[in-house]
Design goal:
The complex is a heterotrimer of chains A (about 150), B (about 575) and C (about 675). Chain A has about 150 residues and is mostly helical. Chain A contains five helices and no strands. With about 675 residues, chain C is an all-alpha fold. Chain C folds into three domains: about 270 residues, no CATH class; about 270 residues, no CATH class; about 60 residues. A two-stranded antiparallel sheet of chain C has the order 1-2. Chain C starts with 6 loop residues before the first helix and ends with a helix. The chains are: A mainly alpha (about 150), B mainly alpha (about 575), C mainly alpha (about 675).
Chain lengths: ~150, ~575, ~675
């Protein structure tokens, strides 16, 4: 059992730290809420309008593409350390891997994942209301398959 | 709790001892070549064809400016899957000790690179095994891909979703499935599982115009990730218990030394089983399947219910029946419980559904129960029954979902039982086809379903699980009712009593060529196997799994001196072909 | 000649296939003629095979067509076993079926689904022949399921009526219980013998352990009870009368329902090897069914209902015979019953046809004058079933009662009492339908109310049950208006309908010759098959004489009673002879319906509720209790994934707990 002791100790410590800090701040901190403190940005500037709820999905896309290359590097790096010792086997393996990653990049580019120009006009489906609603994007895209939405449109 | 602590406390002692020979000390010379496993490319060919095929498909579609001509992607996918099957045939011949099948002589091909003696073999440091089971499942999964892509062809056009993605994902997930079927190493198995799963998650969410589809994809993804964690945790436990992730080595280890009281090993079994049970949707790990089947695009569901399940059972059989067969007494009760729950819950809940897709989802849960009773037998006859069941179920379920695809109409949303009322009048052919599949699923004699159920029950009884067999038969009787309900809806009732009015054009469903081809194949096989189950029986009898050690490359005497772990198995330098 | 046996089932199959593909195209009369021709051809072939069989050693011939399931221990062939038993069955099935096909051409005239009807009918004959001729239990089971499916389709043939559709469903579901029994028996047989072949199984049955034999025999009996409509599974047969009348005659009187008797006879070596109480159980169930169904038949108004309960009662006789070890008598009665009951059903069909769909006997009467041929044949068949000397029913029934008496005088007495009841209710049927004054156009309702004027209370009690009866497919409300008015003139049916009647009536008269007490033709013929289980009586001539006299006297007594009540008696008296208790079939059906509609349905709902409430409830409850965020999460509406995940966790915890406890136990 002894060898697992550090693991358990770390676990206990992590839990204790988390609980303790929350508890301590709750107990010790004086609670004097003011309007400025409750504002979304507690930096003294009062926001003139509500922050926009939506921003382009491309940000996510770029972030995800970034991760793909991140992962590629994570594999490349250790391989680079020992590639001489791995010989042909390692070379073939990493080549297959790199080809697969590169191919996904080709696919992304050809599908316009990195195009930041004016957004291509997608054909609007007749069923989707052009007016902005408070609903999320997923909801709006999904309207088409829903029988109720179809009835409303008709 | 204290007793539990005692158990856990005992475990590390064995673990430490076990680890000693397997861990391997780092090479003394920092520049010495790292031993790499030999690669038999011919054995990997089915995997490579599928994987590279998927990549090439994406590349082609990326380079084409105007989109591919109609039907190109389908044709391409069918060809790639066919090629993969063709690559598997020489392996089948090798396993069975043939040099040719019919007119096809393999000796001119890459025959030389395969091991000289006939029989199952393994490669890549025992990580990939070629035996009857793996080749059988390669063929089966490829067939599922072919049937699924044929169904997708018209579906995508109808839904306005044309593109290479569905096909590429089918190929990738099939690639993962084949890896699972061939994996002799738990890490490789996990790799295959994830390749398969991730592609299928995306497939489930790929109907961009249906909110349910996205919901399904997300649910499947979250829960799938959750269960994968259990699976991985189980692998870790087993590694802790035996000091290896390689099944061959693990089996060796377990047969040599019997851990007196090994908590890690048993918990590892349990967690691994959870991972598999989730993939094949056995109760209580089935909760995702009705929602996902309901939401996902119907042709993809056809593949999920056939190919994915087949791959899951391949892993289950290989790991539990073969590698841990010695510990059958420990895992059999769990599989027993899963089988009973799946049979009962699946068939009972299917009856109360009003959505045909959900009904079929629950019915597939009860089918899983049936396959599990054959797994529980843990005998060669049981494995044969599993393979027979998987093969015949593939055709039944793809056919069923094929009909559901057509009846779903544009929007893929008309799946309630009401939409099937009067189908026998408006679309007699479609209704007749569906009836065949439903009867086959119900296990009516002279259909593949009957023979499959029969073998499963026989295997269970032979192994002494008579009670389980009786439960299975009772649940089959209950399940017969749910199939009958759909048949009755099609023939006996009409949506509003218009029994004699002429069929309007809106009611008539056109059967497109590719879908029709797929349905035809399914009907022919379902009935053909029911009438003459001999060939498939023989085929599934040859699909025996085995865990074969890789011959050591350095040994001059050709003896089978094998180390404890997979990494140690091939100490020689790499010998690559081609 | 015997090697053409495959043609016997093949011809109806061919007919079925032709009708499936071309039925609609060849249209009304031709489809019927084609089907009739196929079944008729099948009969001719069967006769040829019969003569061929006389030359075979032991009168047995087995033809294997191909191997169906070749795997491992299990080796199932598709083949036909032609032996005295299956030959006898084949001959009378194809013969009666041909006549009924011919009859149906007239009866179904004008129906818009005329070809479909014959499609089903041919498929039925094929399945029935597979059932009888199959050389192993699996093949028999196949035919067994096939006839069940056809029966189901044909009962709900006119499915636009809700009652007919639900009658079909009832038949199907009730039969599943029986099928289950057969299936279990089949598996048990396979594990006991390693084969399902009749020749091997029955040859080795003598060496079977007593408990195994008992188990198999009882399970087979469960199967037979379902198919042959014995207590407690008889409820579907009366409702099955919702189907067209030829179907009632062919499937629900002559052939399919006797499959259970065939099965028991086939399995007689197993029954012989089993514990003694198996025979007692079979005989007891048979006797009880015979008696109960006969009493119910006494108080029904629907002409087909009476015949349906009569069928159940006669099937009870056959099981009484089987239980008493009188297999030959059972088969003998099965054959004579097929003749006279088919004749009665077809006659009733002719009556219904002539009365444009009227089935209520209270609205008939005096039809003898309008439909002479139908009435004549009907009367002959009536005398046969009543057991009047020397018609066929007399011989077969007498033989059964003799054996039953030998088994136990109690069973014998029940047999006698039932014989009286049979004579009584059949006479009531004949007197109400063919004698007396024409009563169509009368409003039965008012009369009932007037007759029971003082007892309006009784009307009140029957009121709710009437509605239930409708649901079960009985068009028997007293509120119903008659189909025809007083000026209606019933007509005789065409020759396609009367010819089968005449032939069957003739056979009802002379059918007894196949097994007269002196000659024992049938007994000698069946000897090789039933040798293991048949009990032998050596009755003296006086013994036979006494029995004959008693039973003739009883039959005449029953007829006489009916004569005084139904032809001479007042309405008041007649009403007294129709107790509500019997009219409602001992309230068995209603109780069952109440149970299935109430607790039974609730059981299924409870299971579904369990999944919704308890599993989700546990899941949600755990969440709420531990973290107190259950409500918030539920508001986010994606709590489902979480529930599923928790279900997974519960599964993991259970499995791990199991593993650990197991380990602790071992260590």
């Amino acid at each position: 059992m002894g060898q697992y002791l550090p693991v358990f100790a770390l676990l206990v410590l992590a839990v204790v730290f988390g609980v303790l800090s929350l508890l301590v701040s709750k107990v010790l901190a004086p609670r004097l809420p003011t309007r400025a403190k409750e504002a979304p940005y507690e930096c003294g500037i009062i926001p003139g309008r509500e922050p926009p709820e939506r921003f382009p999905v491309r940000f996510y896309l770029v972030a995800m593409i970034f991760i793909v290359f991140d992962i590629e590097v994570i594999f490349f790096f250790p391989w680079a350390m020992v590639f001489e010792r791995l010989g042909l086997f390692g070379l073939v393996a990493i080549a297959i891997f790199a080809a697969a990653v590169f191919e996904s990049f080709v696919y992304l580019i050809s599908n316009g994942a990195l195009e930041w120009g004016p957004i291509k006009r997608q054909q609007r489906s007749a069923l989707v209301s052009p007016a902005r609603t408070a609903e999320t994007t997923i909801r709006r895209v999904g309207l088409e398959g829903r029988p109720r939405a179809a009835e409303e449109a008709a | 709790m204290s007793s539990l602590a005692v158990v856990l406390a005992q475990a590390p002692q064995t673990t430490v001892i076990n680890l000693a020979p397997g861990a391997g000390t780092p090479a003394a010379d920092p520049n010495a070549p790292i031993p790499t496993p030999p690669v038999l490319w011919a054995a990997l060919l089915p995997i490579l064809v599928l994987g590279i095929g998927g990549l090439v498909l994406l590349t082609i579609s990326s380079l084409l400016k105007k989109g591919a001509p109609r039907g190109f992607y389908t044709l391409y996918t069918v060809m790639v899957a066919g090629l993969s099957m063709a690559a598997a045939v020489p392996l089948w011949a090798k396993v069975n000790g043939w040099t040719k099948i019919a007119w096809w002589d393999f000796r001119d091909l890459w025959w030389q690179s395969l091991p000289t003696e006939a029989g199952p073999f393994s490669t890549l440091g025992q990580a990939i095994g070629v035996d009857g089971l793996s080749v059988f499942l390669i063929l089966l999964i490829c067939i599922a891909v072919i049937l699924g892509s044929l169904l997708s062809d018209d579906f995508l056009l109808r839904e306005g979703l044309e593109g290479p993605e569905t096909y590429a994902l089918l190929l990738f997930s099939a690639c993962g499935g084949v890896i699972m079927a061939m994996a002799d190493d738990l890490i490789v198995l996990f790799l295959g599982l994830e390749t398969l799963s991730i592609a299928v998650y995306v497939l489930a969410a790929s109907h961009l115009k249906r909110a349910q589809s996205q919901e399904a994809g997300l649910k499947y993804f979250v829960l799938g990730g959750f269960s994968s964690a259990f699976f991985l945790y189980g692998i870790a436990m087993l590694y802790g218990a035996t000091g290896t992730t390689n099944l061959v080595a693990m089996k060796d280890f377990l047969s040599r030394s019997i851990p007196a009281n090994n908590a890690l090993l048993l918990i590892g079994f349990a967690l691994l089983l959870v991972g598999f049970a989730f993939k094949v949707a056995a109760v209580p790990f089935h909760a995702w399947s009705p929602d996902v089947y309901d939401g996902a695009p119907t042709p993809s569901v056809a593949f999920m219910a056939s190919g994915v399940k087949a791959a899951g059972f391949a892993g289950l059989v290989r790991v539990f029946v073969v590698a841990f067969g010695q510990y059958a007494a420990d895992w059999q009760p769990i599989v027993y419980a899963l089988a009973v729950l799946s049979l009962v819950v699946g068939s009972v809940l299917a009856i109360v559904q009003n959505n045909v897709k959900r009904t079929l989802a629950y019915s597939s849960v009860s089918h899983v129960g049936f396959i599990l009773i054959a797994v529980e037998a843990a005998t060669p006859a049981g494995i044969q029954a599993v393979l027979f069941y998987l093969a015949s179920y593939t055709f039944m379920v793809v056919g069923s979902f094929g009909v559901v695809t057509l009846v779903g109409r544009v929007g893929d949303g008309r799946h309630s039982l009401d939409d099937y009322k009067g189908l026998g009048r408006t679309n007699p052919l479609l209704a007749a086809i569906f009836t065949v599949f439903l009867l086959a699923q119900a296990g009516v004699p002279f259909t593949a379903g009957f023979v499959a159920k029969f073998y499963a029950v026989i295997a269970a009884v032979d192994a002494g699980s008579t009670v389980l067999a009786v439960i299975a038969m009772i649940s089959a009787t209950i399940a017969a009712f749910l199939y009958l309900r759909i048949i009755v809806a099609m023939y006996m009732t009409d949506s509003d009593g218009r029994s004699a009015s002429p069929v309007s054009r809106a009611e008539r469903i056109r059967i497109p060529f590719a879908t029709g081809l797929s349905l035809l194949l399914c009907v022919l096989t379902t009935v053909g196997v029911g009438l003459l189950p001999g060939p498939l029986t023989e085929l599934s009898a040859k699909g025996t799994p085995s865990l074969v050690r890789e011959p050591a490359r350095t040994a001059t005497d050709g003896g089978l001196t094998v180390g404890t772990t997979g990494t140690e198995a091939a100490p020689g330098q790499s010998q690559q072909q081609g | 000649m015997v090697d053409i046996i495959w043609l016997v089932p093949a011809l109806p199959l061919l007919g079925f296939l032709l009708l499936v593909f071309f039925g609609k195209r060849i249209g009304e009369p031709l489809a019927g003629w084609l089907a009739t021709l196929m079944v008729g051809g099948s009969f001719v072939v069967a006769v040829a095979v019969f003569f061929g069989l006389l030359d075979q050693p032991e009168h047995t011939y087995e033809q294997v067509l191909f191997t169906w399931i070749p795997a491992g221990d299990l080796h199932v062939e598709v083949g036909f076993l032609v032996d005295p038993l299956s030959m006898a069955m084949t001959l009378f099935i194809t013969f009666v079926a041909s006549l009924i096909h011919l009859y149906s051409i007239g009866y179904m005239h004008g129906d818009e689904r005329f070809p479909t009807f014959f499609t089903y009918l041919n498929l039925f004959v094929f399945s029935m022949l597979v059932l009888v001729l199959g050389n192993n239990m699996l093949l028999t089971f196949l035919g067994w399921e096939g006839v069940g499916a056809c029966s189901y389709f044909l009962i709900s043939f006119w499915f636009t009526k809700e009652a007919n559709a639900s009658a079909g469903k009832k038949a199907f579901i009730t039969n599943r219980i029986g099928d289950w029994g057969f299936m279990v028996a089949m598996f048990a047989t396979f594990f006991a013998f390693g084969t399902l072949d009749y020749t091997k199984v029955m040859g080795q049955a003598g060496g079977l352990a007593k408990t195994t034999a008992t188990f198999i025999a009882l399970m087979l009996f469960v199967g037979a009870v379902g198919k042959s409509a014995q207590i407690p599974l008889y409820v579907w047969l009366p409702d099955a009368m919702a189907g067209p009348t030829p179907v009632s005659a062919l499937i629900h009187a002559a052939t399919m329902v006797t499959a259970g008797v065939y099965l028991m006879t086939r399995a007689n070596p197993i029954i012989a090897a089993s514990d003694g109480y198996v025979g007692w159980t079979i005989a007891g169930v048979g006797a009880a069914t015979a008696f109960v169904a006969a009493t119910i038949g006494m108080a029904q108004h629907d002409i087909k209902k009476v015949l349906a309960y009569s069928t159940v009662s006669q099937l009870g006789y056959m099981f009484l015979a089987v239980g008493s070890g009188a297999y030959v008598a059972a088969i003998f009665h099965m054959i004579t019953h097929a003749f006279f009951k088919a004749c009665l059903f077809l006659g009733s069909g002719s009556v219904i046809h002539g009365m444009v769909g009227e089935q209520d006997m209270r609205l008939m009467g005096a039809l003898r004058k309008y439909m002479p041929i139908t009435a004549g044949t009907f009367i002959v068949a009536w005398l046969a079933i009543a057991g009047v000397f020397p018609l066929s029913g007399f011989w077969s029934k007498d033989e059964i009662i003799e054996f039953a008496w030998h088994k136990s005088p109690v069973l014998g007495v029940i047999g006698f009492v039932t014989a009286v009841l049979t004579a009584y209710y059949m006479s009531r049927l004949v007197f109400l339908t063919f004698y007396g004054e024409p009563r169509w156009g009368e409003h039965a309702v008012r009369e009932v109310v007037q007759v029971g004027g003082a007892g309006s209370e009784e009307e009140a009690t029957t009121e709710p049950t009437e509605s239930v009866e409708l649901v079960n497919g009985l068009p028997l409300t007293s509120e119903r208006k008659p189909v025809v008015d007083a000026h209606f003139h019933p007509h005789e049916s065409g020759w396609t309908m009367t010819l089968p009647l005449v032939v069957l009536a003739l056979l009802s008269v002379i059918g007894g010759v196949i097994n007269l007490p002196g000659s024992h033709l049938l007994a000698n013929w069946l000897e090789p098959v039933v040798a293991a289980g048949e009990s032998h009586l050596e009755p003296t001539a006086t013994y036979i004489l006494i029995f004959s006299v008693i039973s003739t006297a009883l039959a005449l007594g029953g007829i006489g009673l009916a004569y005084f009540v139904w032809l001479k008696g007042s309405r008041q008296l007649q009403r007294g002879f129709e107790p509500v208790f019997l009219e409602k079939a001992w309230y068995y059906d209603l109780t069952l319906a109440a149970f299935m509609g109430g607790p039974g349905r609730r059981l299924f709902e409870a299971i579904s509720w369990f999944d919704r409430t308890v599993i989700d409830g546990i899941v949600n409850g755990v969440g709420a209790a531990t973290l107190g965020v259950g409500k918030k999460v539920r508001r986010l509406q994606n709590g489902y994934v979480r529930s599923y995940a928790l279900l997974v966790v519960i599964g993991v915890v259970l499995i791990t707990a199991f593993v650990l406890t197991r380990m602790l136990q071992l260590s």
